TrEMBL record:
Family to which this protein belongs: Belongs to the TRAFAC class TrmE-Era-EngA-EngB-Septin-like GTPase superfamily. Era GTPase family.
Example GO biological process: ribosomal small subunit assembly
G3, as annotated region: 63-66
Gene, per the UniProt record: era
Region feature G4, mapped onto this chain: 125-128
UniProt protein name: GTPase Era
């Protein structure tokens, strides 16, 4: 039996099919917005390290894109690769599902993680959506039987229900070890990276239906001038039509996206932000492995 007073440190992957609430959970567990979220699937494209340091432990969370069944598109292949490589190197896995639901995609994620031979905690998210709580118990009993989970925790990432017990269980499952990151460090990603993510978040929220994959953001300029960040963002799309949608009549749509993204950045960075956005067309970037890697989606 390991000593509960000893310090613990390790990597913890958050996995699950798209849209189950992985990014929302990560943000909650860190206590700050690190991953972008939207109600459209496939918002997350990068694995993000979120670091939570407590008195006795350091938990290094790895957020993964949803694992997809169809691997025939370059972006899907990239997403699958990132998710699987994030899994190879962790100490435990948080497997997130949605309360009262179990889909084929959930099963294929479980198949992938059950081969890894590491502790898996099953997190049943969105319990705030369950109107009739009597339905929860039989559901929990049924899915508990699908694998030898370390524990099963019903929770609501959005409302923050049951997250303290979750953190305790995560710490208990970590290996003993000294912390890897300084305690004030929340992530290993740069501010530039988050600037691009916050712009992409606004665009994904508005246009995921019209422009499913064909959108990415590159930060061309990121300069600090006293209390001000001067940021230039380039939005890449695949077709002229998509560019027109994003710019909108008289540039109004792009202006709104810019205003929202700027507000989010000012909260996130705690700085004044001057943001300028441009939209450019690059044909078929999302199905071209070379273009993907130049835009930051490489291995
Ligand atoms: N009602 C409810 N909604 C939630 C909860 N957690 C997340 N959501 C919502 O579910 C949607 C998806 O959440 P994300 O955190 O982006 O999901 P994800 O699993 O990271 O999605 P991908 O990036 O597509 O893999 C968002 O609209 C969230 O607000 C919850 O506990 N309750």
């Amino acid at each position: 039996m390991s000593d509960p007073q000893k310090s613990r440190c390790g990597f913890c992957a958050i996995v699950g099919r798209p849209n189950v609430g992985k990014s929302t959970l990560l943000n909650r567990m860190i206590g700050q917005k690190l991953a972008i979220t939207s109600h459209k699937p496939q918002t997350t494209r990068h694995s993000i390290l979120g670091v939570k340091t407590t008195d006795t432990a350091q938990i290094i969370y790895v957020d993964t894109p949803g694992i997809h069944k169809r691997g025939d598109h370059a972006m899907n292949r990239y997403l699958n690769r990132t998710a699987r490589s994030a899994l190879a190197d962790v100490d435990l896995v948080l497997f997130v599902v949605e309360a009262l639901r179990w889909t084929e995609e959930d099963q294929s994620v479980l198949d992938a993680i059950s081969r890894l031979k590491m502790p898996v905690l099953l997190l049943v998210n969105k319990i705030d959506m369950v109107k009739n709580k009597d339905e929860l118990l039989p559901y929990l009993q049924e899915i508990s039987g699908k694998f030898d989970f370390t524990t099963v925790i019903p929770l609501s990432a959005r409302k923050g229900d049951n997250l303290e017990p979750l953190e305790r269980q995560v710490i208990a499952a970590l290996p003993e070890g000294e912390q890897i990151f300084p305690e004030d460090q929340l992530t290993d990603r740069s501010e530039r990276f988050f600037a691009a993510e916050l712009i992409r978040e606004q665009l994904t929220r508005r246009y995921a239906k019209e422009i499913p994959y064909a959108l990415t953001v590159e930060i061309e300029k990121f300069e600090e001038e006293g209390n001000l960040y001067r940021i230039h963002g380039l939005i890449w799309v695949e077709r002229e039509g998509q560019k027109n949608i994003i710019i909108g009549a008289k540039g109004e749509a792009l202006k709104e996206v810019g205003t929202q993204a700027r507000k989010e950045m000012e909260k996130f960075f705690d700085k004044k932000v001057f943001l300028q956005l441009w939209v450019k067309v690059k044909k078929s970037w999302s199905s071209d492995e070379g273009a993907l890697s130049r835009l930051g989606y490489g291995d």
